[in-house]
Amino acid sequence: MNSTCLGINGFNKLGRAILTASFLDPTITVTAINDPFFNIDFMCYLLRHECPHIGNLTSEGGEYLVINDTHKILITNAHECSSMSWGQQHVDVVVECSRVYTTRDRCWAHLAVGAPTVVIAAQSVDAALVHIMVNEDMLDKKLPVICGGDLIGAVMAPFVDILLRYAGIDEIVYTAIHGSLPLDSGGGRSLAFSEWCQARYTAFASDSITSYRHEGAYTLNKLFPQLKGKISGNAYQVSTHQGCMVDIYAHSTKIPFLDKSELNEVLLKAIKQDKYKNFIDSSAPNEALLSADCVGHHEIIYEQESLSCMPTSSTYRMRLWMDLERCYAIDLIEMIKRISEAKNINNIN
Predict the structure, then answer these.
(1) 27-82, pLDDT tens digit by residue?
(2) Interhelix angle for 324-348 vs 13-22, to 10°?
(3) For the chain, what are the domain ranges?
(4) What CATH class is the domain 4-121?
């Protein structure tokens, strides 16, 4: 199979996760990265510290990031899409990580300079939401712009699917706690008060607990319309380097309701199915987890020890652990692979 050429717009923490996730699939090759605020030397510095397993990193002519003397990636610092060079680099799919181009109209600028497909790595108000496990059939529509949804909601989706299908859950409330997001370098230049607040919050998140507006519940309600209005959640940033914990309260009106051991058995049996095994793992019984335990994992981890059931009630509590950006990036890479496979089949036909 021919390699799919990938472009990344925005080299923030998520953009770097997309790059490293692409190394796990030989059919995906990142050929171009654009970020108006990161030069090549700074990119090399970040990758050496965050991803030392990548290997040797060098700069060639101030234009190319070279990995292990063989993989060359064009680096550009364009502020506007019109100055980007996706077409010249034969990019097949652009992953939009900047959180600036999050609507179809704005992403059309990527298409205008040669990108056949754009995947928005965030929730969008008008682009079709696609999750590789929940509604993969949306890829058959060959839409030029799609979105992967909010990070927390998209990564939780496989487990929510299990709760819905096998445990009769019909209402979910969650709290997500994760490491601080990187400083938004664009906040100070914005005219929007909300952007100023976010810039201030992220600047102090390294030594504070901060709540912030996220769209995880919106993503889950879109993916599971039968639970529309019955999924809600909050998210907090805390002073930890990596890792994310999601504390879930789930309620079922199913009668008779499952007790703790019955629900745990149902969850473990579902997790082992082929449909879920690449998305979800489980901890050992009686093992309490730390945020460091999930760093580097491709799957979310269901902590068996956390499961509890309210007496004489069908309300359950459980915890998930995840390396948020890595899990999300792995899922997007798999979705991009499916997009490429569909196009190759169409070309053959």
Answers:
(1) 999 999 999 888 888 888 888 877 777 878 888 887 888 888 888 999 998 888 88
(2) 50
(3) 4-121, 152-323
(4) alpha beta
Question: What does pTM read for this prediction?
Answer: 0.87
Retrieve residue 306's tokens.
């956390």
CA distance 208 to 203: 10
End-to-end CA distance of the chain: 16
Find all residues with CB under 8 Å of 191, minimum gap 6, and list them.
none
Query: Considering the domain 152-323 in this protein, what is its CATH number?
Result: 3.30.360.10
